[in-house]
Amino acid sequence: MPTGRQLPGLVDDEPACSIERSLQILGERWSLLVLREVFAGRHKFAEIQSSLGIASNLLSARLKLLVESGVLDTQTYQEPGSRPRQSYHLTAAGSDLLVVLGALQQWGDRHRPRPSGPSALRRVRSTGRPVHVGFLDDEGREVPANEVTMLADRSAKA
Amino acid sequence: MPTGRQLPGLVDDEPACSIERSLQILGERWSLLVLREVFAGRHKFAEIQSSLGIASNLLSARLKLLVESGVLDTQTYQEPGSRPRQSYHLTAAGSDLLVVLGALQQWGDRHRPRPSGPSALRRVRSTGRPVHVGFLDDEGREVPANEVTMLADRSAKA
């Protein structure tokens, strides 16, 4: 069953492929890096902008898309002497993207390594043990990628 | 240890964040959809182009990037009466992207559902049992995403 909120107007003439529907939001340049910043605890426009070095108008557009898509929601805060501003927070759908970022991070570590090594490692918070991203079956056992089938023939399903 | 091939000129002034280095290749519009096509068994330029409805010059540029990045490699084939042409195949680094596509597909199914349901399901090839993408520890046990830490403070690492 769908657990997520739908974009207004998301109807059955959207792309049949879920990868493609995800990329409508996440494939926009900067979207995943904006989300990385929010996962890293940066919630204010100025913090995200300063960390990414992205133009204001682009960051506004990306945050707007992520909010409209139900990936981020906003809270209002006010610092002394300033006007009220919005801060940006992960929804449940947004939090579910950690595994997408984890898969990209792992691939970058393996296949686009830096001479000085990874800048971040995936670990269990409580124990510090290493964590990786992979496929699991319905009993929680890891399944090697070459035993997974996942790409239907779209021409038969569209 | 890095297991992947490096892009020519990939040096330590590349982005410190592995997510960002991955997106240098995969974040380009169409890159992941081109890879989806190759995973689905479409290896020829004309097949990929016809399936995606992408302009030739764009598809050429994406394939070139994916080959230069070591994600795809080429083979030469020749059909009767035609000139020799290139077909495109996943390298080991390319095959490792199945879990990235799987994570995007799963997220799209959950949070960008279509009324008619998913167009493709992730399954174990031999048994048909359902498969999902998740985090695993070093003993192969699933780790809930909220127990995973993976985003170092880049300011301390850059």
Describe this structure in words.
Two copies of one chain form a homodimer. Chain A is of the alpha+beta class and about 160 residues long. Chain A has one domain: Arc Repressor Mutant, subunit A (Orthogonal Bundle). Chain A is built from seven helices and six strands. In chain A, a hairpin with a 4-residue loop joins strand 4 (about 130-135) and strand 5. The two termini of chain A are about 20 Å apart.
Short description:
Chain A has 158 residues and is α+β, with helices and mostly antiparallel strands. The first copy, chain A, is 39% helix and 16% strand. Chain A has one domain (18-157): Winged helix-like DNA-binding domain superfamily/Winged helix DNA-binding domain (Arc Repressor Mutant, subunit A, Orthogonal Bundle).
List strands and helices in order, with pairings:
The structure is a homodimer of 158-residue chains.
Chain A: H1 18-26, H2 31-39, H3 45-52, H4 56-68, E1 72-77, E2 85-90, H5 92-95, H6 98-111, E3 123-124, E4 131-137, E5 142-143, E6 148-149, H7 154-157
Antiparallel strand pairs in A: 1-2, 4-5
